[in-house]
Write a structure and sequence with these properties.
The protein has 325 residues and is α/β, with parallel strands linked by helices. The protein has helices at 43-50, 115-135, 152-163, 175-183, 197-204, 222-227, 251-255, 266-269, 273-288, 305-313; strands at residues 2-8, 17-23, 31-40, 66-73, 85-88, 98-102, 107-108, 143-146, 167-172, 188-191, 210-215, 229-237, 260-262, 296-301, 320-324. The strands form three sheets. Strands 3, 4, 5, 6, 7, 14 and 15 form a seven-stranded mixed beta sheet that branches. Strands 10-9-8-11-12-13 form a six-stranded parallel beta sheet, sandwiched between helices. Helix 2 (115-135) packs across helix 3 (152-163) and helix 2 packs across helix 9. The longest helix has 21 residues, at 115-135. The chain is globular, with a radius of gyration of 20 Å. The model has no long low-confidence stretch (mean pLDDT 96). Residues 12-323 form the Enoyl reductase (ER) domain.
């Protein structure tokens, strides 16, 4: 069948996002076909477009998360049926009206969660889950530093951390984003364009620093993030919106207090079906309970994906953004 999709034939700016017709086939034994109803926008989409992350081949369809309705199932698929509402959050190829995908990579959307909410929360929500519950499991009484706290992952992580009894320090780029972060429970938003976040973190922690920094900004914040940590603290570098972190002399980690460094990805944390279900079950539970609210603050047409990328890259977005086929 023929559908419309955004394809990338070469790396570059938003002009390489091309709206084209593609052919998709019938699902194989362990696959399903989904008709997308909403597609999530994430910074990893920009990384793939620019060539920072490499697809298996060109042209390729970007996008990592979406929600939709099952249109067809393969012969060996028994737990999903035509008409089921499903979503996924760590599989390349989402910027399309419909697609074929391995059944084990999707999960059913629970009642009470809309398709747009599901599309907006899968990758970002699962990222918040593994960061806070697995990479560095936070506990009540901890104080953490979370960069870009007004972004999609940040606002989810902020609410989740507060539910777990954590004090949240977050960096933002403007007074408006500081107010937004506060509304979602951030105890101490720091406007990094106006004050030195290292100095402020030390003030807020009586000179001790924090046990963990979650850093998706990369180049602009990484070295200063190390200075915010307690001895034997952990820096979780899970993105690079400002550019890649330069090569590092690991001796710096010992010099600054026997620090731990990890560069995790959602794909590693959801590699098996059981890992995926553990992550999504936890996520769906906190959303259904009302402890974590998912706000879709921007909506674009899928064919206008370039406009969405431009808004994301110039930090004009807050919370989650979805693309509608």
């Amino acid at each position: 069948m023929t559908v419309n999709a955004i394809q990338i034939h070469q790396t570059g700016g938003i002009d390489v996002l091309r709206w084209e017709k593609i052919e998709i086939g019938e699902p194989a034994a362990h696959q399903i076909r989904i008709r997308h109803t909403a597609i999530g926008l994430n910074y990893i989409d920009v990384y793939f477009r620019m060539g920072l992350y490499k697809p298996a081949a060109y042209p390729f369809i970007p996008g990592m998360e979406a929600a939709g309705v099952v249109e067809a199932v393969g012969a060996a698929v028994t737990d999903l049926h035509v008409g089921d509402r499903v979503a996924y959050g760590a599989t390349l190829g989402a910027y399309t009206e419909a697609r074929v995908i391995d059944a084990e990579r999707v999960v059913k959307i629970p009642d009470g969660i809309s398709d747009q909410t599901a599309a907006a929360m899968m990758l970002k929500g699962m990222t918040a889950q593994y960061l806070l519950r697995q990479t560095y499991p936070v506990k009540a009484g901890d104080t953490i530093l979370f960069h870009a706290i007004a972004g999609g992952v940040g606002l989810i992580a902020c609410q989740w951390a507060k539910k777990l009894g954590v004090t949240v320090i977050g960096t933002v780029g403007s007074a408006e984003k500081a107010e937004l972060a506060k509304a979602y429970g951030c105890d101490y938003p720091i406007i990094y364009t106006k004050e030195n976040f290292v100095t402020r973190v030390k003030e807020l922690t009586n000179g001790k620093g924090v046990p963990v920094v979650y850093d998706s900004v990369g180049q602009d914040t990484f070295m200063q993030s190390l200075d915010c940590l307690q001895p034997m603290g952990t820096i979780v570098s899970f993105g690079q919106s400002s550019g890649s972190v330069p090569p590092l002399d690991i001796g710096i980690l010992s010099a600054k207090g026997s620090l731990f460094l990890t560069r995790p990805t959602l794909m590693s944390y959801t590699a098996s079906r059981q890992q995926l279900l553990t992550c999504t079950d936890d996520l769906f539970a906190v959303v259904q309970s009302g402890d974590v609210k998912i706000d879709v603050n921007q909506i674009f047409s899928l064919k206008d994906a370039g406009k969405a990328h431009a808004a994301l890259e110039t930090r004009q977005t807050t919370g989650s953004t979805v693309l509608l086929p």
